[in-house]
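> example.struct
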C-alpha cells in the first residue's frame, strides 16, 4: 500500500483554514498571526510534513538556498569560514549548497552552472588561483542574482566584498622580522593574478622601504600554491651565495613546508633564518618551532559575507550597494621568529 505524503491540503483540512494561510505560515509570511502560525507549525511537525521546495520556489521565485564556491578544503581556512556561513544562513531560514573548485578555473565555471541549475537565491564565492576571466560570474549579475566575494575577490565587479587587510598583515609581519634584526628577508609570494598576493607583496615591499632595506628581486619568488615547488624554491634560497636571514611566506602551508626544508639543512630557526606565515592554520601552533603568523577573523568573514548577501535578497535590486568590508588581521608571534 502506497504511503500518503502529507500535504498543505491535509494541514488546512485538519485546522479548518485555507491552503494559502498554511502556505504563508510555512514560508514565514508576516501576515499570519503568531498563534495561528504556531498551531500550523506544530501540526506540520506532528504529521511529519515535508515542504515541497520546488513548488514553493515556483510560487515565490525563491528557493531559500545560498550557494558557496571555495577553492579548496585542504587547509582549515575555508572550512572555518563555511561553518560561519552555514550558521548565519540558517538563522535567516536559508540552506547552503557548497562546491569546491579545487583551484581549477574550469571546475569553478562548472560549479557556477550547478548553482544556476539549482536556482540558488544568491552566491558567495572565493575565486581560484587560475581565474582571470569572470564571464561566468557576470551571468549572476545579469540575471539579478546577488553575488558576494570573500577573501579572493574580483575588483572590476561592482558587488559586495569581504576581505582582510592583507597589505597591513604583510607589512606588520615583515616589520616584525626587521625589528628582530633581520635584514635580508625573502618572500615566497602567491600567484600574481590574485589580489591577495599583490597586496601581501606590496606590504612586504613597503616594510622594506620604511626601514631603508634594499629590495632584492632574487629573494622574491611568486608561485602557484603547489607545495612541491616550495621545496625547490626554499632550497634555491638557502643555496644563494648570500642566503636570506628570514622568510615571509604567502600562507602557512607554504611556511610549514619551508620550515621542513630549513630543518633538513640543519639550520636553526629563527637564529639562522626566521619564518613567518599568513593565515594561522590549526597546525601552525603545534609544529616545531611554532609558527609566527598573521591571523584572519575567519568566523567574522563568513558572517559578514552571509549578512551582505541576505541584505541584498531583502532589498530591491535598485537598492543594492557594492560595499567592500575590510577586516583587521592580527600578528601572532611564536618561536619561528
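> example.seq
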Amino acid at each position: 500500500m502506497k504511503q500518503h505524503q502529507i500535504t498543505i491540503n491535509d494541514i488546512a483540512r485538519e485546522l479548518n483554514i485555507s491552503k494559502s494561510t498554511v502556505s504563508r505560515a510555512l514560508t514565514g509570511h508576516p501576515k499570519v498571526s503568531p498563534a495561528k502560525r504556531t498551531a500550523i507549525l506544530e501540526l506540520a511537525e506532528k504529521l511529519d510534513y515535508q515542504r515541497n521546495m520546488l513548488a514553493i520556489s515556483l510560487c515565490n521565485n525563491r528557493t531559500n538556498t545560498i550557494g558557496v564556491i571555495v577553492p579548496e578544503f585542504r587547509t582549515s581556512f575555508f572550512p572555518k569560514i563555511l561553518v560561519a556561513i552555514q550558521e548565519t544562513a540558517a538563522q535567516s531560514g536559508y540552506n547552503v549548497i557548497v562546491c569546491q573548485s579545487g583551484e581549477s578555473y574550469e571546475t569553478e565555471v562548472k560549479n557556477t552552472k550547478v548553482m544556476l541549475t539549482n536556482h540558488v537565491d544568491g552566491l558567495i564565492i572565493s575565486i581560484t588561483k587560475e581565474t582571470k576571466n569572470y564571464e561566468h560570474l557576470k551571468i549572476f549579475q545579469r540575471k539579478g542574482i546577488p553575488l558576494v566575494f570573500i577573501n579572493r575577490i574580483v575588483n572590476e565587479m561592482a558587488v559586495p566584498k569581504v576581505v582582510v587587510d592583507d597589505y597591513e598583515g604583510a607589512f606588520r609581519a615583515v616589520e616584525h622580522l626587521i625589528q628582530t634584526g633581520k635584514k635580508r628577508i625573502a618572500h615566497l609570494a602567491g600567484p600574481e593574478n590574485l589580489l591577495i598576493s599583490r597586496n601581501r607583496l606590496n606590504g612586504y615591499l613597503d616594510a622594506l622601504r620604511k626601514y631603508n632595506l634594499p629590495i632584492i628581486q632574487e629573494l622574491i619568488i611568486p608561485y602557484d600554491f603547489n607545495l612541491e615547488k616550495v621545496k625547490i624554491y626554499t632550497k634555491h634560497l638557502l643555496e644563494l651565495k648570500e642566503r636570506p636571514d628570514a622568510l615571509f611566506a604567502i600562507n602557512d602551508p607554504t611556511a610549514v613546508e619551508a620550515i621542513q626544508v630549513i630543518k633538513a639543512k640543519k639550520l636553526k630557526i629563527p637564529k639562522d633564518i626566521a619564518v613567518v606565515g599568513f593565515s594561522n592554520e590549526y597546525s601552525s601552533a603545534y609544529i616545531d618551532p611554532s609558527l609566527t603568523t598573521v591571523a584572519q577573523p575567519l568566523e567574522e568573514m563568513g558572517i559578514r559575507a552571509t549578512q551582505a548577501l541576505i541584505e541584498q535578497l531583502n532589498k530591491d535590486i535598485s537598492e543594492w550597494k557594492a560595499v567592500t568590508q575590510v577586516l583587521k588581521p592580527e600578528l601572532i608571534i611564536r618561536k619561528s621568529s
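> remarks
The chain has three domains: 8-60, 65-164+298-329, 166-295.
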